Amino acid sequence: MKEIEFDFDAAGQAKRQTEEIMKKMKTDVLSGCLEVFCEVRSCWSTEAGGRFLVTAYMEMEKLKYTTRLLEHMDISLEEAILTAERAEEKAKETAQLRTH
Q1: CB-CB neighbours of 61 under 10 Å
Q2: Which of 84, 88, 80 minimizes the C-alpha distance to 14?
Q3: Is the pTM of this model over 0.90?
Q4: What is the DSSP letter of 46?
Q5: 70 near 21, Cβ under 8 Å?
């Protein structure tokens, strides 16, 4: 039977990095975009400015979608870590039963 190895350190690091990027997306990128859009709206009132804002808002929706993907990735990593922990505990229990 082959062993399955799960690197808890790497998984934990990936989870922390994902959380960090997700938080930056929410606090810095998305909120920063809204601030810029408000400034653009107030100083660029031509038709071109309106078209720019429409395009910019569409791109912001893509950023929001990316943020949601990061949230899902964070949840999936957490579930993978918990599943691996449970499997490791179960394997330890099984090994103890076999040695007794």
Answers
A1: 10
A2: 80
A3: no
A4: S
A5: yes
- Higher per-residue pLDDT: 21 or 99: 21
CA dihedral 12, 18, 22, 23 (to 10 degrees): 40
Ramachandran category for residue 45: left, alpha or beta (phi over 0 → left; psi -120 to 50 → alpha)? alpha
Q: What is the pLDDT of residue 100?
A: 67
- Mean pLDDT of all residues belonging to the chain: 92
Label residues 31-43 b or e (16+ Cβ within 10 Å = b). Answer: eebeeeeeeeeee
Q: Whole-angstrom Cα distance, residue 89 to residue 83?
A: 10
Query: Of 6, 12, 9, 25, which Cα lies nearest the Cα of 78?
Result: 12
Reading the block at residue 31, the tokens are 């909120």
